[in-house]
Backbone:
């Protein structure tokens, strides 16, 4: 076991600030629409100026689906969800929670959590995010 020397986010909109990981969106400076992927123009107003904005780490489950069939190598079941983070919609899996309707509910309070995707030979650990019950 080699010691982890650094961590990198698996997606570029996950920010791994010390002890306070969060998502960062591109916010349209004209209308305030937020996007996690990079845009050349705003889908709402066609504005082309964006500013980075840090997104709340706590939210509410707005919809979810328990995935029981997936490509080979993908562990199932898992829970894919859409979460309202204080007004910003984000997609992510529900983690640290049994993947069944007994434990995952619409309107459930969740918070951002990170998990390891693995560590390479240089000790660089890739982290992805999900949402766990708050
Ligand atoms: Zn806009």
Residues:
């Amino acid at each position: 076991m080699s010691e982890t020397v650094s961590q990198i986010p698996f997606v570029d909109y996950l920010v791994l600030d010390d002890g306070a990981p969060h998502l960062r969106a591109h916010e349209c400076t004209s209308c305030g629409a937020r996007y996690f992927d990079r845009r050349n123009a705003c889908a709402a107003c066609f504005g082309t100026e964006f500013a980075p904005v840090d997104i709340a780490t706590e939210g509410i489950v707005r919809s979810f689906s328990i995935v029981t069939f997936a490509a080979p190598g993908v562990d199932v079941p898992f829970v894919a969800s859409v979460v309202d983070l204080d007004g910003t919609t984000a997609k992510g899996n529900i983690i640290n929670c049994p993947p069944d309707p007994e434990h995952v509910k619409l309107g459930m309070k969740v918070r951002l959590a990170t998990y390891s995707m693995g560590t390479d030979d240089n000790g660089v650990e890739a982290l992805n995010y999900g949402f766990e019950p708050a």
Strands lie at 6-9, 14-15, 22-28, 34-35, 50-54, 58-67, 78-85, 88-94, 109-119, 124-133. The pocket of zinc ion is lined by residues 28, 30-31, 33, 42, 44-45, 47 (CB under 6 Å). The two ends are 32 Å apart (CA to CA). The chain has a mean pLDDT of 94.
